[in-house]
Task: structure prediction
Amino acid sequence: MSIAEPTITAQACFHCGEDCDDNPVVFEEKAFCCSGCMTVFQLLDDHNLCTYYDLEANPGISFKSAKRRERFEYLEDPQLLDKITDFKNDHQISLSLYIPNIHCASCVWLLENLYKLDEGIQKSTVNFLNREISLLINTEKTTLRTIVELLTTIGYEPEIRLEKLYSKEEKKPHNRSLWLKLGVAGFAFGNIMLFSFPDYLNTTETSLGIEFRVIFGVLNILLALPVLVYSSSDYLKSAFAALSQRGINLDVPISIGIVALFSRSVYEIVSGTGTGYMDSFTGLIFFLLIGKLVQKKTFDRLSFDRDYKSYLPIAVNVIREFGEEISVSLDKLKAGDKIRLRNQELVPADAILLSDEAFIDYSFITGESEPQVVQQGNLAYAGGRVKGISAQFRIQEEVENSYLTSLWNNEAFQNPAKELTLTSFADRISPYFTSAVLGISCIAGLYWLSAYGIEQALSVFTAVLIIACPCALALSTPFTLGSVLNVFSLNGFFVKNSLLLENFAKSEAVVFDKTGTLTQAEEAHIEYKGYELTARQQSLITSVCRQSIHPMSQKIASYIPAVNILEPDHMDEELGKGICGHMGSDQVCVGSRDFILQHTGLKEAEVPEFTYSGSLSHVTINKEYIGFFGVQAVLRKGLPPLLKTLKKRVATFLISGDNNTEEENLTPYFGDRNSMLFNQSPEDKLAFIKKLQQSGKKVSMIGDGLNDAGALKQSDFGIALSDDTSSFSPACDAIIEGNSLQKLNRFISFSKAGMNIILASFGLSLLYNITGLAFAITGQLSPLVAAILMPLSSVSVMIFTFFATRFKAQKMELRIWK
Amino acid sequence: MEVIFLLIGFSLFVALLFLGLFFWAVKSGQYDDSYTPSMRMLFDEKKTSNKNHQETKNRDV
Result:
């Protein structure tokens, strides 16, 4: 979806901003590119909703490239309604719909004013980042189907996917409990600081001082208790879980610190020997939780764990006995059902073609770039996309048993261990850290025991535990990675789990998929080589090519700017091979070499034989060889320089499910032929990644289709490429936008820099720990020192990581602002 | 000086009130979507009829 610059030229469509070409539809002195756009304007105008056009210039969604309006009968099925609604009673339903087209403030405004278009809508709320609309609908006045049809009419077609039928997933509580814990900790922190203030003044002499001490002590304990029980529960639980499995993670020393802080403070307050460290305690938890909140930063609108169910639509059009079409949800689709699929629609289950022939694009499933021709009676596999004319199919298998599903459920493609074994650097060093801290505290305690007795010894022992609590250490990883992730997302690279970034930084081999990743099928480059074409010849060729639905012919037809189109008298087409047309006395043939030889009677020597990287169509007019059209897939913008620089630091590989016609083209970028593999099945791809890993390399894989899904899962860091982050991508660890792929090299450098920043901030926080230890061992750790040192270390680590990552990002010319 | 105990009680009460409000805000979902409201505040509530909409447009041009 491209929104043109907001210009007020006569040629830009008032609704969607696209060029109106030569003949705009004019309504109320406004130009529209098509009647679809005008209809929306009229509808909004009638309902006083024209503010839509004031908020942003040309906010509408273009109807030119829009798919045929889908049919929504299936939304009237009560069983289905139960599955997709959040709440339902006799006269109300509420549900949320995913609308990929939401893109600007105008969209939010219009969708939240939907009630003006349909009075049955009681409330509509948009979540912009998730591209979701929550609806409360009065079912006595309207139906869900009417609303979805209305949304589709104005260009906001909701996307209802098959997965909704199977998993009624609970809505995530969105970190709500984390916010609450943070609130409690912050509340206690602030109040305890206030109540601790008199302690720092010397009021012990007066009688009021003692009263103060008692009342503030009690209040501090009361305030700190919920922090210990509620706010810090995650750390305590995690430490307990780790210990009960005889492991040590970073939460163990933190929990030791927490418990030591709290119990020592309670002891001091109750016994009246001191004022305790409750301010440090609550402050520590507060900062730790802020770190956790930063780490929890997720990209809700992107989903990284998808399966085939989110690829398939929720319903297809089934043809009933008397030829009428009804949309039926996929879970009710049975073998033997007759369905009709139109241009760009997906084959939902393995099915036999009933129409004469059809073009099916399997690029997403297999990686082949050319659409395949399926003849009547042959099987079309689920997941293929119908190109060109519509076709009828008979379902052979139910959705769950189709090839696509079995491919997906293949056990080899599951790699559940990948994230379970994730540990941050901090977790890895924590056993050493913990034993060092315990060692130091015991030695210091023993020293003081021999010299000054048990009370002083215990005091030093707990002081060491308190001050060595690795809170700054625990903050450095989430803050650095959070910052890195933020920079990445500003640059079109979305990482699912920040801990995986380490794998990415260390990758020694990068494997690329070809179709859809390195190349873009839609952007194919077409060229003509041969004798110069006269205007007459041009119109002859175009007129013939227009008659075929083969993508190659379509490309040729749109490539030649023909003036007058002729109607061929007689056509001869061999699907996927070539086409011959007769117009008056002229005969034009376009097709493969064999086809041309067969149909024109030319001798072999007269039609040249080429090795061309890409697909090729020869042209003859009146049995005379004219030249050929070549179609080459072009690399994405900025990729040649990327591949060259990338090759210098890591091994690069190409692995493709497509044939090797473009091998020649790609060799310069990948060095030698051994690093390029063609005709690879999904299983081959996975095996190749495994082989690389067995040779001791960390492998990053970049792919876009289902055929890469296994390889993406197996690789140490799987990146799915998606031109539109709202569209489907296979399960992966990160999603990269198509035009950001050229920055990949810098992304690797930046994640490496991020790892170094973590190390540096570790150093920084250790410095604080050592300073604190000096106080603790010498028995001088007063609550004041602890209260200063702890927040200081946390805050300085936060500031350091924030600025260090931004500085690095700027140096690498990555975007750091919106 | 004893009035300070009263004041402490009062300040704690106010602070608890705010904590309660924060809980209410989180539970009612105000922290679930922190982006869309920033767009929503730009919308005018005034009803622009078609005519004055055109007038404003003309003035802009």
